[in-house]
Amino acid sequence: MSWPLVRAAAAVAAAAPGSLSKQYNVCGKPGCRCKDPANPQRHGPYYQLSWVHACKSTTQFIRGPFLAEVKAQLATYKAFRKLTDEWVELALQVAKIKLQAAKDAAKVAAK
Ligand SMILES: [Zn+2]
């Protein structure tokens, strides 16, 4: 990607799209605590990150030590998206104002 803003944002902080989910699992070991009939204690939590990029959906397990880093990347991505949405919104407003100004100028010239 060569878009300067994207490169600048990547230099400041890593950004990643997606959402984290927490899971608890049952294993195949006979007599394990996860299958205790009275008080089953499932294994976990395991964290899973799911995201869609370039029309491709991906899911990845995130190990505990990387959880904080991944959460920070998700927050950075959210903030980045919010800023670009605002930027696009402003660009649309500017385009609308310019169009109106051109129409007004044409009306004045016609008189
Ligand atoms: Zn188990």
Question: Brief overview, please?
Answer:
This protein has 111 residues and is α+β, with helices and mostly antiparallel strands. The chain is built from two helices and three strands. The protein has one domain (3-106).
Bulk shape: rod-shaped
Spans of at least 5 consecutive residues with low confidence: none
* N-to-C series of helices and strands: HEEEH
Q: Beta fraction of the residues?
A: 15-25%
State the strand order across the main sheet.
Answer: 1-2-3
Average pLDDT figure: 89
Could you tell me how far the N terminus lies from the C terminus, measured between alpha carbons in angstroms?
A: 49 Å
Q: What class would the helix/strand composition place it in?
A: alpha+beta
How many alpha or pi helices?
2
**Rounded Rg:** 25 Å
- Number of domain units: 1
Q: Can you characterise this structure?
A:
This protein is of the alpha+beta class. It is built from two helices and three strands, in the order αβββα. The mean pLDDT is 89. A three-stranded antiparallel β-sheet has the order 1-2-3, with helices on one face. The two termini are 49 Å apart. β2 (43-53) and β3 form a beta hairpin. The chain has one domain. Helix content is 48%, strand content 23%. Residues 27, 29, 32, 34, 43 line the site of zinc ion.
